[in-house]
Design goal:
transmembrane, 20 strands, 15-stranded mixed sheet, alpha+beta, Jelly Rolls, transmembrane helix, FecR
Length: about 325
């Protein structure tokens, strides 16, 4: 696992957000620019968060008296960030005004701590945070953790985490992905991000799962022993009772599944395999199977699937593992 302290990715996302937001304020975007903006927003929850923060701060301008705005307009300008990938010449004076107005800072005031964490194939890691909250990070997982005086936020780029969160009524704990977020005050819950699907299960406490774009967000509350999922195609599914112990068995090196689609099982198992796994027959992905696999020897676990499902498993040179119907 690699863990990097600092705020490089966090600061870069901020700078790009300022660039994009300023370009939007300058006038209508071309179809090409709009596509670039949409792609940038979709590429990371960090980008979405900072862009939304700018929108909220901009709205605050309407609440200030005219005379105060005039005084603030004379404040020292914020230095323009240098970003090689963007060549616009936006008007930063307005955004500088947003940043300094009346003590309302665009970004959270006070000390900030951040970490970038990435686990390798078949690697699990425990990350203990400054407030004694603990993140168990599954294999092939990438997260960015940002702590400010106002909130604790984990950006789950890919993979799976099990969070044991210490209660702090003044600083909510939020796990965010590209399309959804989970907010808690004190609980233990599991979040798994696979392709365009997000699964959340609660072991202790309560969480609120919100999904979809901020202008049309859906939300559900989950309690102990409950789970829900979100997918881009189907939206937010209903809250259901779940075997949370089975869903979190990966922390002990096991993969437990009960009547689960083969495609989801293989996607979880692939985090422990050096070679890619591909399903030859797309319909096989929906085949329901049940069982328990040990992650200590993931290749053997993969081959065991042939004993519990009507499939054959081949290792093809240059293609990795291929699953076909038997």
């Amino acid at each position: 696992m690699t863990t990097t302290a600092g705020s490089t990715s966090h600061s870069t996302a901020r700078e790009h957000a300022v660039q994009w937001f300023t370009r939007v304020r300058l006038g209508p975007l071309s179809s090409e620019e709009q596509a670039q903006l949409n792609a940038w927003l979709a590429s990371s929850p960090l980008n979405q968060q900072h862009f939304q923060d700018l929108q909220k701060a901009w709205k605050k301008l309407d609440e200030l008296p005219v005379e105060r705005l005039r005084r603030l307009a004379q404040a020292p300008a914020v230095a323009r960030p240098k970003i090689k990938s963007l060549s616009w010449r936006p008007v930063f004076a307005a955004l500088a005004l947003v940043a300094v107005m009346g003590g309302l800072w665009l970004w959270p005031a006070g000390p900030e701590q951040s970490w970038s964490v990435s686990t390798a194939v078949a690697q699990r890691q425990e990350l203990r945070l400054p407030d004694d909250s603990v993140l168990l990070v599954n294999a092939r997982t990438q997260i960015n953790v940002v702590y400010t005086p106002k909130e604790r936020r984990v950006y789950l780029e890919s993979g799976e985490i099990l969070a044991d969160v210490r209660t702090d009524a003044d600083r909510p704990f939020i796990v965010e992905t590209a399309h959804a977020s989970v907010q808690v005050l004190g609980t233990r819950f599991n979040v798994r991000k696979q392709a365009d699907r997000l699964d959340v299960a609660v072991d202790r406490g309560r969480v609120r799962l919100s999904a979809g774009p901020w202008w049309n967000s859906q939300s559900e509350r989950l309690g102990v022993g409950q789970a829900a999922h979100f997918s881009v195609q189907q939206g937010l599914g209903p809250v259901q009772e779940a075997d949370v112990a089975a869903l979190t068995a990966w922390q002990s090196g096991r993969l437990e599944f009960d009547n689960e689609p083969l495609g989801l099982v293989l996607e979880q198992l692939s985090a422990y395999l050096d070679e890619p796994v591909r399903i030859g027959d797309a319909q096989l992905a929906q085949l329901r199977i049940s069982g328990t696999l040990s992650m200590e020897k993931p290749q053997e676990a993969l081959l065991i699937l042939a004993d519990i499902a009507p499939v054959q498993i081949l290792n093809v040179e240059s293609k990795g593992w291929v699953i076909n119907r038997r």
